[in-house]
Every structure is written in C-alpha cells, then in structure tokens.
Sequence to fold (483 residues):
Amino acid sequence: MKILVGMIHHESNSFNPELTELDEFKILKGEEVLENRDMYSHSSLKGIMETLKKNKFEIVPTAVFLPTSEGGLVSDGAYQKIKKIYINEMEKHKDIDGVCLALHGSMTTESHLDVEGDILSETRAFFGDDVWITAAVDMHAMITDKMIKNADGLTAYRTAPHVDKYETGVRAADMLLKALKENIELKMSGVKIPYLVSGEKSEGSKYPMNELLKKLELVDKKEKVLNSSFCLGFPWSDVKFNTVSALVVTEESKKIADQEAKYLARLFWDKRYDFKFTTPAYSLSESLKIAAAEDDSPVFIIDSGDNPGAGSSQKIVEPLIYLTENNFKNVLYGSVCDREVVDLLSEAGPGVRKDIYLGQKNSDPKSGKVKFCCKVKKIRYYKGIKSVLTDIDGIDVIISNQKVVMTDPEFVFNFDIKLDNYKIIMFKSGYLAPEYQPYSKKTLLALTPGYTYQELEKLPYKNVKRPIFPVDKIDKIEFETFC
Fold:
C-alpha cells in the first residue's frame, strides 16, 4: 500500500509586522524528502515515516517546508508558492491508499487564511472521500471547521515544551494504518473552547495541564476511542478561528467521539481560572531586583515578550537598555537578531570597539535602532548561524544574523562560555528549555515588551471571535462543535 506524506510547518504571529517570505523556509521536494531526513529528524514526520516503514507500507513523499524560525504572518505570495509546490508533487501520485501529513495548525497568511485547512481541502479534493487522511499537529494548533471537514483523524503533541513530536507522528500513522488494515471508519469530533492561553501558562508537566493531559490517556483507553487531543490555539494569532479545542477520534462511532470531546472540553473549561504562569513572573525591573539579591547563581530570566519560538522578531532591546542604564554587570544577554550589525562587527574583528545601532527600541517598528558602544569578543558559526559575542557596558551580549530559538546550550558553549560565571543570564524565550534547566539556580519570567507579550488581556485583538476568555469574562457557555 502507498501512503502520501508531507510536512508544512510555521507558527505565524500576527502581531509581528514582518511578513515571513519563502526564503525563510527550508524546502525539500519529492525524493529529496527521503534523501534529507536529517533536516526533519526532530519532527512528527520522522515518526510517521518510520511507522510506515516498520509496517512495510510504501512512502510516497511530496514536500517539506520548515521555517528557519517562527515569525510574522506568511506573505500571501510565499504561501501560494508553497501551495503550488505541494500540489504539483501531490498530483504526481493518483494511486494512493492513504495520506499522513505533519502540519503545525497555526500557520496563517497576511490575508488570514487557514493554511492547514486549505492544504487538507486541496488534498481531499484531489483524492476524494475514499482515501483516509490523518495528520499530526502542534499542541498550539488552531483547529478549524475546514480541518475537521477534510481530515479523518488529527492528533496533537502532548508535551510542552514539545518533546513528543516523534510519538505524535507515530499516533497519526497508527490511526491511518488501523483504518486500512482493519477496514474500519475513522470518526472525529471536536469542540471549540472560547479560550486563549499561552504556553507559559500551560507547560505539560505543571498543573493544570498535567492533569488534563492525563485525562487524554484515560479517554484513549475507552472502548472505540483511538485518540484524543487538546489543541491550545496560538494566542498571538489574531484570527477569527483561534480557540482552544478538544478532539476525539474513534473507531466507527461519531456518537462516542461527540460525547468524549464534550467531556474533555468541560474538563478544560472548568479549570480556566487555574492557568497561571508556570514560572514565577514579574516585571522586568522586579525580576532583575530579585535575581540580583540571590546568593546562588546563575539566575535565568526569560525575556518573554520577544520570543522567536513564538514568532517575535528577537530584535527588541528595551531590556538591554534597562540593564545598561541601571549599571548591571556580570550578565549574559541574547540572542539579538541583527544581520547588519553581525556583518559590521565581523569585519571589525575581535578586540575592536565599535559604535553600533542595534535591533529596535521596543515593539513599535518605528521606534528605531538603538546606539550602543561595544567591544567584539568572539565570532562564531553554529549550524549555519553567524553570531558575535560582544561586551556592551560590562554585559555580554550575543548578536546573531538569524533568529535563534534559545533551546540548545551548544549554541552558547560554542563561544567557550561557562554559564556559572554569570550572575544573571537573560534569554529571549518563552520558558527555560529543558536543556538549560540543570544550569539554573533560579528561573524567573520577565513580562517584557514584544510581539509575544504575555498579558493577553492587554493585546489589541481585532479579529478573534468574541467573547473569549480571559480577554472577556465568561462564566456560562454552550460549547460549539466543529462542522
């Protein structure tokens, strides 16, 4: 049997005014997908493909689109090219027994198009209703009516930070294989929950998300149930279809799928007031005051408002301004994304002092770059990214020519840095990555400005369907199911 596979990923932040263009995606087409598996080795697509191979199914590749980093809305032009490539590859294969895709669920274009719904719709239109379609999605997927209508089974990550991408791919493939091997029908139901929640309040190992995820495991054990998921939506996407959702896929029973999805939705809604920051959260000034008073070091502070992992620009230097103006020392700060500055300092070389205009002052794009005097310490390459370690008024600042999601300590160690030499380490991130946690004596979350600003009640939503919690206060609701 032949199974069509593909991968399209991007988490699109509509508050970041910088559009994401095609050159910000790594692209594989056709046989390149099979020949370059290292490019997506930490993904649900790997789980999909290895499950298919293990069960001796033939893998038919279409395309892979992976962003160099999450960012602003994908330009309409870029998406049309992505869509054309995928459709061209898909239409080469008419004799297909099933489709299993690795999608994100929060990829949106400048015209606010539901990308995943569009891709699934095109796939369904080409292969018809007789071909089963399943997909793995991110925990922060925004599920839509179009996705539910055109997919037979969806399954989402169950960890945040996301360390179960492979396992999610396995679940997506297993649902498809069960339908094909046992000749059963997949039935899926979903319930919309009018809620916006950030990942910084819903870590998988912390209450209440840990309890809710355990409920999924119990639901999965019920008769006829194949898979259940919570999809938390993406709070920095201002689109009408942005909600939390509960999904259930069953073996031939729409009634059970409806019943269990409503049950999960009620469980989630009943805990709506329990979602708090899982890392102690303070203003920038208060978090630095607390860190400075600690005896043990280093203290990690998360610059949460400018998190590239959720689509911010990694250019906002307001925290760095505060650090310099308040004479902080023995601090590591990074990474700031500024290609022009990296080129300038690379040309200057180590040991040179240079005036630079860096990043932007705050989340207003018109705020302009900020002047600093820096000394170049080291220049390094890591996984294709060029970065400079500089000294700015006694603060070590990493500046990179691309956005860097601060999850890999080797990126920092590449500068011969020892983390325990610093009193404070401030990274642009959402929460402290598991790989860094062994080095932290204390971790704080700073409510800093940026395109991933954490106080959702203060964000200028214009398109999200209202009312929605916690932007609006809601106590009684009637759950809406997907079409």
Notes: The mean pLDDT is 96. The CA atoms of residues 189 and 215 lie 17 Å apart.
